[in-house]
Write a structure and sequence with these properties.
This protein is an alpha/beta fold. The protein contains 15 helices and 14 strands.
């Protein structure tokens, strides 16, 4: 199975040993951040620093000023990684990794951008209570689609860097869930259905969209508020209240099926279908426009993969897509998969809907299992060999490992051992 590791440019720039260290893991490819959200990252191997603070969403290359009209949303260049390369830290890192024999994909984050939300608050998702989510631009809005299309084409295709493809994160609806600095949102646990309801957007564009589907926006808002009200008074989440979810006609099983069942129970099947009609349609249009722009910029042979979840109601980095449709315009998907024996059911739940549809299309279509290998972030590097074998048996074609720059020495040693041994039989 083709294996790739996620990497930040700041893991490589200024560390001459980094490319060979990453190649020695046994991976064939790296997924290198080109446009990324704000973060605080440990750099345990770098000879010059131990912590990098990316203060805001930024691109790791110099953006083309001719692409971005004055006054419209535009990407910000970063200021925290020093590079003398005219192409910025991304180009310097990509060329060094390519020289070490690694293929490079650009890692592009789209609908997750807090700086954009601060500068243009009207473009953000607005929940049923009227609260704005500055980290989540509403992908139904024309100005957001225009910005994302320009960003994707520019950030994914970096000429002269050896970049052969891209992996688009947050290529769909973002919502309530967000790893925010000093986060204080855990006082009331929200299950997947509650997060989905808290993620529904009620900006004027989305309200018009709901109405076009036959849903009354005011009644919908009231239904969402009423469904969530028991949570604020200490009641169990809607998924628990509905019991185990059986396999659904749309291919969802396990937790994802239970979440979808709870949403339909709370909103009513007819109203839930109208909400889905608007949101799924807006997300599909967003993705198709983004992918088309990348294909035009990248040309023949440039791979385009989406970080994706098979449950269309899910939001975030791995935005929900329709498994039966996504391979019609993208080359593949990168699917979040839990590791270890306890994650076996979750891996099957995530991968099977995509595997079932990947073979229906001409050309190579990729389903990549994304496994976390950082122990301190919930990963299971010690079971990687078995997890690789299970993902392969489920039909996954490739694997992504999160994250070669964040994992400590013991975790990377476990990765090297697993990849050198091959999948368990």
């Amino acid at each position: 199975m083709r294996t790739s590791a996620f990497v930040y440019p700041w893991d490589v720039v200024g560390d001459p040993a980094a490319p060979e260290r990453i190649a020695a893991l046994g991976v064939r490819q790296v997924t290198l951040a080109s446009a990324y959200h704000s973060t605080r990252a440990l750099t345990p191997y770098h000879p010059r620093h131990r912590v990098v603070v990316a203060r805001h969403s930024a691109v790791l290359y110099p953006p083309d000023p001719g692409r971005w009209p004055p006054g419209a949303p535009r990407p910000r260049p970063q200021e925290w990684v020093r590079s003398d390369d005219p192409g910025g830290p991304y180009a310097e890192a990509a060329r060094a990794l390519t020289a070490a024999g690694l293929d490079v994909h650009a890692w592009v984050v789209l609908a997750h951008n807090s700086l954009l939300g601060e500068e243009f608050p009207d473009v953000c998702v607005r929940n049923a209570y009227g609260d704005r989510y500055p980290w989540a631009p509403c992908i139904a809005r024309p100005e957001v689609r225009t910005w994302a299309v320009r960003l994707a084409a520019e950030a994914a295709v970096r000429p002269g860097t050896g970049t052969t493809g891209t992996e688009l994160e947050s290529c769909g609806w973002y919502g309530f869930a967000h790893l925010h600095a000093h986060d204080k949102t855990g006082g009331v646990p929200l299950d997947g259905a509650a997060v989905a309801l808290m993620s529904l957007c009620f900006c004027e564009v989305c309200e018009t969209g709901y109405a076009a589907q036959g849903a009354d926006p005011d009644r919908l808002r009231a239904a969402v508020v009423a469904a969530l009200e028991p949570l604020w008074r200490g009641a169990p989440g809607p998924v628990a209240a509905g019991g185990e979810g059986a396999a659904r006609a749309d291919g969802l099983t396990g937790a994802r099926a239970a979440e979808r069942d709870a949403i339909e129970r709370l909103l009513g099947q007819e109203q839930a279908a109208r909400v889905a009609g608007w949101r799924d349609g807006a997300a599909e249009r967003f993705r198709r426009e983004v992918v088309a722009a990348v294909r035009e910029a990248g040309g023949d042979g440039f791979r385009v993969l989406l970080h994706a979840d098979p449950a269309r109601h899910r939001t975030g980095a791995d935005a929900g897509v329709a498994p039966e449709a996504v391979f019609g315009y993208a080359d593949g998907v990168v699917v979040p998969c839990p590791g270890g024996p306890a994650g076996a059911a979750g891996r099957a739940e995530a991968l099977r809907p995509f595997v079932a549809h990947a073979g229906e299309h001409t050309g190579d279509r990729v389903v990549a299992a994304n496994l976390t290998v950082v122990s301190g972030m919930g990963g299971s590097p010690g079971t990687l060999r078995e997890d690789l074998a299970h993902a392969r048996d489920l039909g996954a074609h490739e694997v992504r490992l999160y994250h070669a720059g964040l994992a400590g020495p013991a975790d990377l040693a476990a990765v090297t051992a697993a990849l050198s041994a091959g999948p368990a039989r």
